[in-house]
Design goal:
CATH class: Mainly Beta
Largest sheet: 8 strands, antiparallel, barrel
Helix content: 10-25%
CATH architecture: Beta Barrel
Distance between the termini: 18 Å
Number of helices: 3
Strand content: over 45%
Structural class: alpha+beta
Strand order of the largest sheet: 1-3-4-5-6-7-8-9
CATH topology: Porin
């Protein structure tokens, strides 16, 4: 009986680590993939050990704190805590390169043309953020295993609508008008979480800690309007980095199997996405098997 449970929990744990790792490996996600596999694997081994060592195989759990699998789906609300410099860091290199190429290098000996622009010149093609949308909505899904009355291990997925904004070019090296760009930040997050259930009755407050990755695709496109020679085309860059999540919430059992859940958490990415933190709030339903 215990070996059968160990096999089931082990296969679930494999999904906790490998599934998001496969998604995270798109782009610069090799470190992310290792993080997800390692974090999910360690989490699953611990959960499996706890389940096998603490459950009495003579007696099946039937209460609200019973061991078993669960799936959940929630509506999600996110409020950004971005800094302007970190947002610009995602897109400014590509925008600078496109502006430099599209404005071209003047012909030698033409005094009416702007002098050539040295690559990487810090004095040209700098940008400011005009605005980034404060909050967006999305969807949040989770699946996991409650391996102890007080402990669950889960995989959490979150997809958000785009954070929209705008970028303004500070100065130009010629008589061209400064460009304005519309900005879109598309966010996708996977984390392996450990949940600690503080109570085991019908109402169950909990805390959670998670590690995983954030994938943010940043897009900027020229919105200056008019027929401007050398106008920059749309630029797009996908960035994947390790992220941590911590939070708390409340589960309320409507029935033995149907749970209403509310939670709030804070998401902190690292690497090139460092500083693009956001608050997340979700309300939804779970099904306990």
């Amino acid at each position: 009986m215990r070996l059968k449970k160990a096999a089931v929990i082990g296969l679930t744990s494999l999904a906790l680590g490998v599934s998001p790792a496969a998604a995270g490996s798109i782009g610069d996600g090799s470190t992310v993939a290792l993080t997800m596999v390692g974090g999910g694997g360690l989490m699953a081994i611990g959960c499996m050990a706890i389940a096998l060592l603490t459950q009495d195989e003579e007696e099946e759990d039937e209460g609200y704190d019973r061991r078993g699998f669960y799936l959940g789906l929630s509506a999600s609300y996110a409020r950004q805590n971005f800094s302007d410099s970190d947002v610009l860091n995602l897109v400014d290199g590509e925008l600078q390169d496109n502006l430099r190429v599209l404005r071209g290098t003047p012909e030698l000996g033409d005094p009416d043309e702007t002098p050539p622009i040295p690559p990487g010149d810090p004095g040209v093609y700098t940008f400011d953020i005009d605005d980034v949308e404060d909050d967006v909505f999305g969807v949040l899904g989770r699946g996991g295993y409650r391996c102890h009355p007080y402990i669950s291990a889960e995989l959490q997925f979150e997809a958000l609508a785009d954070f929209d904004g705008s970028i303004r070019e500070n100065g130009t090296p010629s008589n061209d008008s400064a460009r304005n760009f519309d900005l879109e930040l598309e966010t996708l997050v996977f984390t392996d979480n450990i949940k600690g259930h503080l109570l085991t009755g019908r109402t169950q407050p909990f805390v959670l800690l998670g590690v995983g990755f954030m994938r943010m695709e940043s897009k900027a496109y020229d919105s200056s309007g008019g027929d401007i020679p050398g106008r920059a085309p749309q630029t797009s860059e996908r960035t994947v980095n390790v992220a941590f999540r911590y939070g708390a919430g409340l589960d309320f059992y409507l029935t033995k199997n149907v749970v209403m859940s509310a939670e709030g958490s804070y998401l902190m990415p690292f690497g090139k996405l460092d500083g693009l933190d956001y608050y997340q709030f979700g309300v939804g339903l779970q099904y306990r098997f």
